[in-house]
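Note to self: user wants both folds in one dump. Writing first protein now.
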Amino acid sequence: MAGLNRYTFGSALALMVAIGWPTLATAQDGRLDVADSADTAWLLAASLVALLTVLPGLALFHAGRVRAGNAVSVLLQVGAVAAFASLLWVAAGYTLAFGETSHGFVGKGNAWMLIQLGNVRAGTGVPESAFVLFQMSCAMLAPALMTGAWAGRARFGWVIAFTGLWSLIVYAPLAHWIWGGGWLATSVHALDWSGGLIVHGAAGISALVVALLIGPRRDPGAAAAHSPSLALAGAGLLWVGTLAQSGGFALTATDDASAAIIATHAAIASGALVWLLLDRVTGHRPGALSLALGAVSGLATIAAGAGYVSPGGAIVIGAIGALACRLASGIMRKRIGVDDTLGVFAIHGVGGLLGALLTGLFMAERVGGIGYGGAGGG
């Protein structure tokens, strides 16, 4: 009987350790580092939700806004770009973005093909492999966003080659400058919670440059959205995926994650409703496309500050973002004449850059933000 009691106690103790205590990360470099079970589970869940929703959502959001004859091409480009970006992230992108910092411009090549990952990502409680997976969702999204700028007038091979090079020579270094401890993070203390600058801003500006270089379509007036309902469904998936990304950037299963999710949701909802209202007051008929565009403008604008501002501040940021992005869309199309097919610069570029500026205002403690002394990295 005593032996049975000892066996039962030992089994219970082992179960408690397995469930409630931090777990040992898989050893890849011989060191015995400890990862937090709850934080790891949260980051993996956020990664999977983001991967499941963000890219399909973007593909549908873009495909629903082009002519029916171009929809399949848009879906193909988004999927292929995401797949190629994933391979490049594993091969070289991650180590360029998050490798050991030397001169502050690009990470050291200490993790090519992910062969020298640490057991736990420095400064966190999660395995570095989980961190790689989560960051991959952003590395895939950024180049895929740009496909909307040249929809209907770019060859498939050129798209893959360009976005692949862009991922390595633009996205990875920029991610290192801010998220990887590079010069912008250390010298000017730049903040970007979930990609307002690194994902949306960079993709938007690059899309504008490419649109200018490629030139306009032969018949730019024939670009009416063939399926607003499809675009709205895509925006809905982007909405959910962005919540997962925003919460995941906390890297902990704490109130930091839930606060970022609430702020992101509030900004997206605000942007969606403001765009509908603007269409109404300007004599346009509000519809599914209005809601979709407003939601995406809101998520682009809040990305930089989701973890730093209050829910009230996020509502204002989302509203301002929708107003600015809608104005930019009209100006780019009617006055400047740039043929950015799906308004990637107007939505993501303007939204991301404006959101970064607004973060500096709304993170102040007097308006409910975390304050300028309590800001950490995204």
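First done. Writing the second protein, which came from a different request thread.
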Amino acid sequence: MVTNLSSTQPNNSTIKSSSLRISSLNCRSLSKSSSPSTRQEFVRYLRNQSLDILTLQETNAGDPEMQHTLNTLFNTTSTSWTSHCGIVSLNPKITLTPTLITCDQRMIVCEITHTQRMFDPITIITIYAPAQSAARKIFYDEILTLPLFSSSSLDDQGSGDQSIILTGDFNYDLSRYRPPSEGQNVSGQRRWIQHIQQSFVNCISPDPALRTFQRGSVSSTIDYIYTTADLQPSLTSSHVEYVNHHWTDHALLVSSFRFQSTRHGKGLWRANPRLINNKFFVSSLNNGLTRLCVKDT
């Protein structure tokens, strides 16, 4: 079983901590690999990375039969697949609930929850933007109209009503972005970049940025993992892993989070049954419960 989610509880504390490793990778048509053995080696490599959540782009997994094959290889059923993207839970304690798939199938939105409630629900989004410039501008124009990215759901400090981790192959290099001049017409892609910079935190942002794509002599940074500001204090590490170029020309991005949970205390304690005959105890308990009920109403 591949898992990196663990919990510890000091003897003198009711606080537990749990880690979450989430990754993003353009898998370059994993489902269309001409060699089944190559596909199996690729999946085996990914399963050995101790990941909890794996987000994928360029999946070509729109066919239900192929989705079943991939679920079998990853040894999981908690997944969401489209012809362009995929989100996979590799931890049996973490459940995916799909909440949105765009009509073009280039964006998947899921909510992840832990069976033991070790962290609050988190919204996971993965996107695979078109490689063609014109189509990419339209794509970003359209997803910016979704309520998920509206100002009411996500304010400029990323402290809206949702904790979000955003991953994907964005198909643009942020280092080449230049803010528009005053009065200049702003394309959908530029508005998207402005929105992301205002509302999200780049989890993998060394200077200079590490390349995430290389084909021959051409390399660039077009894959990203972002998070809303409320999750940034829980971010413990991030790295870029370069994988076998026979599998993909993209790098594997990994971000690790650690959450503190106070939901799990020391448990319920049984009172001494003789206390039921103690009039002072019964009266105090009754008064305390009455005040508590009045306070909650």
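Dump finished. Worth passing along: Residues 1-13 have pLDDT under 50 and may be disordered.
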